[in-house]
Specification:
The chain is mainly α. Helix content is about 70%, strand content about 0%. It contains 7 helices and no strands. The longest helix has 28 residues, at about 130-160.
Length: about 200
């Protein structure tokens, strides 16, 4: 209920409110007297994702879930074999990425939004409402934006200095960057082969 209220008041998706709550919680935990330095406290976790790394993880959790869901829908509905092949590949790869990242977050006790809070996929929902060639073109346009953003985010994560708190994310980004780049290239190939809009 608090997430819904936050989302309405701040005009944010529910997963955006999770970031706000997490930030407020972290700030509250940093106030008041400390008996021990952070590194000596019982709650200290040197492997917990922080800052830009945490934002990367949450963004990819959200976009991978949205991309996998819309790709599954498009794969079933499209009449274009090339789009269907792309959608099946995207659904598989993005779902795998989402599950891998979610399991990593649980291993490090990183707070992640619930599944339904990650479902605020407005653009994906609009694509799923379309049909035929219009749906195919909207899906390709959506993938052009998301794959471009994914490549940028993965490259930025790989370029960050390695520290204990981001080592796991750095390894994931380094390992999966070729797959993310391949997806971007495949989407561009499909776009170039697609018929022009009227």
């Amino acid at each position: 209920m608090r997430l819904l209220t936050c989302a309405v008041q701040n005009r944010l998706p529910q997963w955006g409110c999770v970031l706000l709550f997490a930030g407020a919680l972290a700030q509250a935990q940093n106030t008041g007297p400390k008996l021990y330095p952070a590194a000596m406290s019982m709650d200290y976790n040197p492997l917990l994702w922080q800052g830009d790394d945490a934002r990367f993880a949450l963004d990819i959790l959200h976009t991978s879930r949205c991309t996998a869901q819309v790709s599954k829908t498009v794969a079933v509905r499209t009449q274009n074999p090339a789009v269907q092949s792309l959608a099946l590949t995207m659904a598989h790869d993005q779902d795998k990425l989402h599950r891998k990242l979610r399991n990593m977050a649980r291993t490090f006790n990183f707070p992640i939004p619930r599944g339904r809070d990650l479902d605020g996929c407005e653009e994906s929902s609009r694509v799923a409402e379309l049909s035929g060639q219009e749906a195919d073109l909207a899906y390709i346009a959506l993938l052009l934006r998301t794959t471009e953003a994914n490549v940028s985010q993965f490259e930025a994560e790989v370029a960050r200095p390695q520290v204990p708190s981001n080592w796991s994310l750095w390894k994931l980004a380094e390992k999966d960057l070729p797959m993310i780049r391949s997806e971007k290239s495949a989407v561009k190939d499909i776009q170039e082969a697609a018929p022009n809009r009227k």
